[in-house]
Amino acid sequence: MNRKIHSYSFLKFIDFRQRVIICALFFMLITSILLSTKIGAFSIDLFEIISKSASPLEEMVLLEIRIPRILLSCFVGASLGLSGASLQGLFRNPLADPGLIGVSAGAALGAALTIVVGSDFTIYTALEKYMIPISAVLGSVCIILLLYVSTMGFSQKGIAYMLLIGIAVNAFATVGIAFLTFISSDLELRSLSFWIMGSFGGSEWITILPGIIIISFAILWMIVSSRELDILQLGESEASRLGVDVKKLKFKVIISSAVIVGVSVSLSGMISFVGLIVPHIVRLLGGVNHNFLLVGSAIAGGILMSVADLGSRTLIQPAEIPIGLITSALGAPIFLWLILRSVRK
Amino acid sequence: MSIIATSTSYGTKKKNILKNVSLEIKHNEIISLVGPNGAGKSTFLQILAGDFEPDSGFIQYDGIPLSKISIQERSFCRSVMSQSQPIIFDFTVRQVIEMGWVERGLSAYVEDFHQAVTKTAKECFVFDLLEDKFSNLSGGEQRRVHFARTLVQLWRPSESQDPRYLILDEPTANLDLFFEREILHLLRTKTNEGFGCLIVLHDLNLAAKFSDKMALLHNGAIVKFGNPKEILSSEILSEIYRLEITISKNPFRINYY
């Protein structure tokens, strides 16, 4: 009975049409990235940069401002899309999203605390740039710990119980944020409300690089569970009879989505709707199996977010529209169209 | 080689669900487990499958205690069909059947993958449904798809002599007369290939006709075990089922209407 066990093989469970869709999405992602580098308050020709004939100012704008911002938007979109898809699979609930288990609210609460309370104790050190991201990650970590303790290591009473705890935690964090908004000064309120609506402005290499590295690892860690998420659709006990360690799977999906959502929220603010809607769009495009869905949602999330950010910084120049408004305005009609199309079929 | 349950007991604070139940499931044998609602059939099945451990007693698979076998190893040697839950997202029938495929990391098995799915789908009469959405199927069709998935889980290359067991909770629920008979015939074929089967059935006539041995469970204890025609009597059945039940011998038939 000592056979070597592979719990995962990717290509077997993903059909030809789905491979084509993934390639097409990837191509769209590259296109949207290239477009975003070119268009902006300051139009830049990529070929000039490559052929070294661009001015130092153009090069600076591209390398130090625009590229980090585009990269961050893609990674945040990918992490929201992916964690939405895997949480919907884990909870077997099409309405689950990263906001629902309270993680983004926890991150927001952490960041809001730093913005409002922390501004009285400003420390002029090298750490200052990391203050908001770190407190946001700490906020989401606290929420995960709370979830972990109250569900006895994610195992007690199944998944519905955890959703209810998540909703309670969410409400608690929302109260915290509302209270902080209430006691904040006008200046704090402005940065708070902008942060709550989300923005990729002010992305710098030094703050986004650690985030991007963490997100990449978590994405890889999550994608390898896609086959197990498929089997989980049969029910928890059925999945365990098919050799899936359900407790480990829950731990893996929840921890990695908490980490990527915590990091994303800490770098860009609260961006709602993407985690809920992107997986549905991808399902309607090509199918519901998680081998396809997780990769597809990551890429589609990246596309949606980079296009939304492009809109956010170019639509009413020189002002910037909060990214959350754009993602909802872009996502909702696409979603509606897809639903109507599938009903007609 | 067999699954052996030795004096397993299980209970909650309020009630003893199983009392000292012992049973052996051998190769090439269909054992049916019958009894009224609440007799403890499903609980026994779950303990046998390894979902939870009994309060006392133990389960052995081919001489190895079940608690010593990892959940992955278990999935290679036994498959379980329970009363199924709905599947939320729109998986196709093919995808649902493929969920039963447990990776074994051996090239001989890997090459069999598509063949296993196609052949089993044909055996269970769901080949024409493979590309349909599972949630659009009727109850009986869904049942057959789940049965196919249960069989795919135990797929082996034809020369394999590995021990394999099927544990089925009412596999014929929602099936019409034709499919009921065909699925039980298929089960007999599989048993002749070396499977050991334990099935829960409610139709006593079906159970008597298709099983080699029958275990009659009542209030958490096995009251009779053996060849159905020998152990069943109208007195015992009438008492357990609280109904007037008669048995005619030739042909063997249990009458309760």
How would you describe what is shown here?
The complex is a heterodimer of chains A (345) and B (257). With 345 residues, chain A is an all-alpha fold. Chain A has two domains: 89-270, ABC transporter involved in vitamin B12 uptake, BtuC (Orthogonal Bundle); 274-345, no CATH class. Helices cover 73% and strands 0% of the residues of chain A. Chain A contains 14 helices and no strands. Chain A has helices at residues 16-38, 46-50, 56-91, 103-116, 131-150, 158-183, 186-197, 205-223, 226-232, 236-241, 246-268, 274-286, 290-314, 323-344. In chain A, helix 3 (56-91) runs parallel beside helix 8 (205-223) and helix 5 packs antiparallel against helix 11 (246-268). Chain A is globular, with a radius of gyration of 21 Å. The model of chain A is unreliable at 1-8 (pLDDT under 50). Chain B is α/β, with parallel strands linked by helices. Chain B has one domain (2-85, 156-255): Rossmann fold, CATH 3.40.50. Chain B has helices at 41-49, 71-77, 93-98, 107-111, 113-123, 139-153, 177-192, 204-210, 228-231, 234-241, and strands at 2-11, 16-26, 29-34, 56-61, 64-65, 78-81, 164-169, 195-200, 213-218, 221-226, 246-248, 253-255. In chain B, the strands form three sheets. In chain B, strands 6-7-8-3-9-10 form a six-stranded mixed β-sheet, with helices on both faces. Chain B has a four-stranded antiparallel β-sheet with strand order 2-1-4-5, covered by helices on one side. The longest helix of chain B has 16 residues, at 177-192. The mean pLDDT of chain B is 89. At the A-B interface, helix 10 of A face helix 2 and helix 3 of B.
